[in-house]
Design goal:
Blueprint (H helix, E strand, L loop, with lengths): L7 E7 L6 H9 L7 E7 L5 H7 L6 E7 L4 H11 L4 E4 L5 E2 L3 H11 L3 E12 L5 E4 L8 E3 H6 L11 E4 H12 L11 H12 L2 E13 L15 H14 L6 H25 L6 H25 L5 H13 L1
Parallel strand pairs: 1-2, 1-4, 2-3, 6-10
Antiparallel strand pairs: 4-9, 5-10, 6-7, 6-9, 8-10
Length: 328
């Protein structure tokens, strides 16, 4: 299947990815879909990433290289999305991979049904060493065509679907604009994209679950998967999602969505706390103080929210909150 660069842009954020960049470009050159654009965003790399991209001669797609100072993958994705001239965009990490027909299987439904705004890949988890599939993401439903608002409701306290796929650029740009009204200072809290993806789900008309395989490589050396000294900052985005639901999102079931958002905050708190103890020896004294202060402040906010909102938690969530209060 042949399309044009105005139809689809595949965006690849890259920071010191000289070991992986040619592999992912070669993977895209083997795609059964042809004619799309590829935009690599070099996020201030200090290795040969940019030079390798500049020397690569694609056969199946057009290739552009954007360069920016090191501001993180989230900003790299956003800059490339805004730069893209295509109707649809897909973001792929350098150390992940696709089956040879994945783009075509995900893109084709967008051309046959104008109501589809997002087409998600079929997500597989792969061991970085053995290269074997270790598991598959299981969506909350086996249906293929999903209402965006239903997907949003099933992606608050847990991910009912994943976020890897092809997006209508107008939808994701609107999601960025809405997110910016909540994160008014434009700070990178590490997982901004998780909130933006959820907002995109709620804005979408139809979300399609395709059969195009995406291979998520469990690589401990990935810049997004190694020990992160600032991980506690993800707590901000859990509260931002709550704020979005309370102030921006139209819904007849707002009380239920708000309850789920509080549950997400507690589970995020729990995840941050687990990492605090796991990474304790890797943190400096000042970093430990920052982590503990952020966790304590968030626990107080949850307790205040319980008093004001009449939140109903599961026993597991209640137990986690009690333990957090004891530990911090």
């Amino acid at each position: 299947m042949r399309i044009g660069s105005e139809d689809l842009s595949v965006i690849i954020p890259a920071y010191n990815e000289e070991a992986n960049i040619l592999t992912i470009l070669s993977t895209l050159d083997r795609q059964s879909l042809q004619g799309f654009a590829v935009i690599v965003v070099d996020d201030g790399s200090t290795d040969n990433t940019a030079a390798l991209v500049e020397s690569y001669e694609p056969k199946q797609f057009t290739l552009q290289l954007l360069k920016q100072e090191n501001t993180g993958a989230a900003r790299a994705r956003e800059n490339a999305i805004r730069y893209s001239m295509s109707k649809y965009v897909a973001v792929i990490d350098c150390d992940d991979s696709l089956a040879d027909d994945s783009l075509e299987k995900a893109f084709s439904p967008l051309t046959s049904n104008a109501a589809i705004d997002i087409s998600l890949f079929k997500l597989n988890y792969v061991d970085a060493i053995t290269k074997r599939i270790t598991g598959k993401f299981v969506c909350y439903t086996s249906e293929k065509n999903l209402q965006g608002k239903d997907v949003f409701a099933n992606c608050i306290k847990a991910w009912g679907v994943h976020a890897f796929g092809i997006y209508n650029k107008n939808v994701i740009l609107e999601a960025y604009e809405l997110y910016d009204t909540i994160n008014t200072e434009g700070v990178n809290y590490l997982n901004n994209d998780e909130v933006i993806s959820r907002i995109s789900f709620g804005l979408a008309n139809i979300i399609y679950l395709s059969e195009g395989d995406y291979y998520f490589i469990n690589n401990a050396n990935s810049t997004t998967r190694r020990v992160n000294h600032n991980y506690y900052k993800v707590l901000h985005n859990a509260f931002f999602l709550l704020g979005y639901i309370e102030k921006k999102y139209p819904s007849d079931n707002k009380a239920l969505l708000i309850n789920d958002a509080w549950a997400l905050i507690v589970s995020t708190l729990w995840g941050v706390s687990v990492r605090y103890f796991k990474w304790y020896k890797s943190l400096t004294t000042s970093e430990r103080l920052e982590w503990r202060s952020s966790i304590r402040h968030s626990v107080r906010q949850v307790r205040q929210g319980i008093k004001n909102s009449g939140i109903v938690f599961t026993q597991k969530t209640k137990s986690q909150l009690i333990l957090l209060g004891i530990m911090f």
